[in-house]
Specification:
mainly alpha
């Protein structure tokens, strides 16, 4: 900020501070929104949602008062755990993803515009989308939309 103020004037330092605040604020809001959506998926109990919100406020405050090196170290370790969780989930989902890819490629090989229905692969359980009604809506929209 000091360099910016020396070269462009004091207004540049204020502008940089505002930009940094907005970036940090929107990042916190966005990540809170992701977390809140996950909380809704996991539980509808209001107490857990309040606890989550309180934890976010406490962690944001903690992040603002600890040393920068410690904050970066915590972020780095957290990213390792997040990456490990994602790798495990990817490994679990790979067989299903490959089945869906084979289904897609088979339709393409037949010269079709691939459409997936949950009933096409009944071994995939708990599918809440891609039912007959969804496909009918999709086809209706394609027929009525200008090309």
């Amino acid at each position: 900020q000091g360099s910016l103020a020396d070269n462009l004037g004091s207004w540049a330092a204020v502008l940089l501070a505002v930009i940094m605040f907005l970036l940090a604020f929107t990042s916190v809001l966005g990540n809170f929104s992701y977390g809140e959506a996950n909380m809704h998926f996991l539980t509808s109990q209001r107490g857990w949602h309040i606890a989550f919100g309180a934890a976010v406020v406490a962690l944001v405050f903690l992040g603002s008062v600890i040393a920068v090196d410690l904050a970066w170290t915590i972020a780095g370790v957290s990213m390792v755990f997040i990456a490990l969780i994602n790798l495990v989930v990817i490994a679990i989902l790979t067989p299903t993803a490959l089945k869906l890819l084979r289904h897609y490629n088979a339709q393409r090989a037949q010269g079709l515009d691939p459409i997936f229905l949950a009933s096409d692969l009944p071994e995939i359980k708990n599918v809440e989308v891609w039912v007959d009604e969804d496909v009918c809506d999709y086809q209706r929209q394609r027929e009525t939309s200008p090309s």
